[in-house]
């Protein structure tokens, strides 16, 4: 469930665009000083509060319309204007939030393929927490924007165990139905248990099951695993000393994304200095999806409401925009 | 280029459906014998010639419309009627031909995942000779028909080297543009040459390049390979004693599909007893795509026109339908 709040009635798109344009306006004011005839040139800056009050309270369809209308009216991409006018974490949050979801996934995935292995987590997230149709749309947006395929960049960027897991994950187009084959679930729970017992964590059958089965089927298999072998599979996977290879997070993303994102937030906020990259990503990407669940999970797990934790760790416009997206109406 | 011939003007769809219905009509005629009052019950069979004259000369859009109109008019799927009325190779040819291309790919792929490894070639063909968009539509048709994903069945069906190659091939959604990065082409030609020289035919880089790069990029890389290292890559790959693993055919399917299909036809026709399965598949699947090129290639390579070769090897309605699809107007 979304935490986004949208005013009722929503202002006309043209008004939103006009307000945004005003928010960006850089005006030169000529002031006479009292004591002399000299002029002081003042530069009025961007009105961040106005930007938050608009973009922080419009859903994906509305933002898309705003971006289209803004481009038609002022001959400039709204994202370019945001990029120019804003800075730092606030800029990244507003820009990520303003992107169309498929474009945003393509953008983040492309960025991830250019960075170090820690960014492999972002690729796994995109591959596993989107619906099959959304992942496909991200791959189409990737073609359109980068003139390459997502999987070729991921395959080129990764090696070894990351390669073995991430390439099939980002290439998957899982069946999206609820039907479950209980015989397959039993057989594959057994295979998973065997391979994990043999410490063959990177075995092709583990990858095959996680990367190709429908989410409903993976879930049935893991339920059977727990019933039959006593442990949650994630507990067993964590005995892998090399779990930097994302197999446990993959399982979590596929079956309990809200718990996965709670943990990302927890680590980002508890980190000395805050990991703004992760905080921004989770809030911008999940606000309209399941932020309400993530936020509830966060409070249960950390005994502090997410908004309080954010207020403690962040400041300024960045803080205000985060709060707007996680549901603060007054923000 | 297609070899299909369509009459001008095309008869109205309703007429085609009526004619097909007539072709299927099983009539009981009561005849008085001259010598007595007893009755002879005669069963009039299916009119195969009429079926060929219609379905053998309609393009994919027209056939789809015929199937829709037939179902609306007679409350029965045309494919079911064909299945019931026809037999053997002729049946399979007409049914494959009448299926919508994406459905047909899904059907053939599903069949292939249930058979022995020789059918892996069919999976490779589907993955490599369709456009990225067509492969995607086949995967969507697979979801709709089998309530599973193509890649999960392929991954489950294959093992070892086949698995390593086929899963990424069927999961790929390649970039479809013509842009080529010459630096990548040079670098990857070098990688291919190194791995082949080391006889590491199943190396993940070889698979990565073949399975994820756009066809234009693969082609540029292979051109560079030939320029730089002297041999056609296929010649080098063929020194692999285990080339049953389809790497050379994959290269051919990606870059010169008409040559690949010529070879499939050549082997099917030259085989003692004819491989009707392969013959049917190539004709039904390529008649509307590149059969003209395949047929020219066939004549160049075998010094006999394809139609003459088919006439020598096949008979009856099956022969007539094959000839219709490869462009015989009189058939």
TrEMBL record, chains A, B:
Database matches in InterPro entries: Annexin, Annexin_repeat, Annexin_repeat_CS, Annexin_sf, AnnexinD_plant
Coiled coil residues, start to end: none
Pfam family, one: Annexin
UniProt-annotated binding residues for Ca(2+): 24, 45, 85, 269, 271, 273, 311, 313-314, 319
SUPFAM superfamilies: Annexin
GO BP, one annotated term: response to stress
GO molecular function, one term: metal ion binding
Keywords, ordered alphabetically: Annexin, Calcium, Calcium/phospholipid-binding, Metal-binding, Repeat
Keyword presence, Repeat: yes
Protein family according to the UniProt entry: Belongs to the annexin family.
Domain writeup: A pair of annexin repeats may form one binding site for calcium and phospholipid.
Protein name per the record: Annexin
């Amino acid at each position: 469930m979304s935490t986004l709040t949208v005013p009722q009635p929503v202002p006309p798109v043209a008004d939103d665009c006009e307000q945004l344009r005003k928010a960006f306006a850089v005006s030169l004011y000529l002031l006479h000083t009292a004591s002399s005839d000299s002029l002081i040139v003042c530069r009025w800056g961007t009105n961040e509060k106005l930007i938050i009050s608009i973009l922080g309270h419009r859903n994906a369809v509305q933002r898309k319309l705003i971006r289209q209308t803004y481009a038609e009216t002022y001959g400039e991409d709204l994202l370019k204007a945001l990029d120019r006018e804003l800075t730092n974490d606030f800029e990244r949050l507003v820009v990520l939030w303003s992107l169309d979801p498929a474009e945003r996934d393509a953008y983040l995935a492309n960025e991830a393929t250019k960075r170090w292995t820690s960014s492999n987590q972002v690729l796994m997230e995109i591959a596993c927490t989107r619906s099959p149709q959304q992942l496909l749309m991200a791959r189409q947006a990737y073609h359109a924007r980068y003139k390459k395929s997502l999987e070729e960049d991921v395959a080129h960027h990764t090696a070894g165990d990351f390669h073995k897991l991430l390439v099939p994950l980002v290439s998957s187009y899982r069946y999206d139905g609820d039907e479950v084959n209980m015989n397959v679930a039993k057989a594959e729970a057994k295979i998973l248990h065997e391979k994990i017992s043999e410490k063959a964590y990177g075995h092709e059958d583990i990858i095959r099951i996680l990367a190709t089965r429908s989410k409903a089927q993976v879930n049935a298999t893991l339920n059977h695993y727990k019933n039959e072998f006593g442990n949650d599979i994630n507990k067993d996977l964590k005995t892998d000393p090399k779990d930097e290879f994302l197999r446990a997070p993959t399982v979590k993303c596929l079956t309990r994304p809200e718990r996965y994102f709670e943990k990302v937030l927890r680590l980002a906020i508890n980190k000395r200095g805050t990991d703004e990259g992760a905080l921004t990503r989770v809030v911008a990407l999940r606000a309209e999806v399941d932020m309400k669940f993530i936020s509830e999970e966060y409070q249960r797990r950390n005994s502090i409401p997410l908004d309080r934790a954010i207020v403690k760790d962040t400041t300024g416009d960045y803080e205000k925009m985060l709060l707007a997206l996680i549901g603060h109406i007054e923000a």
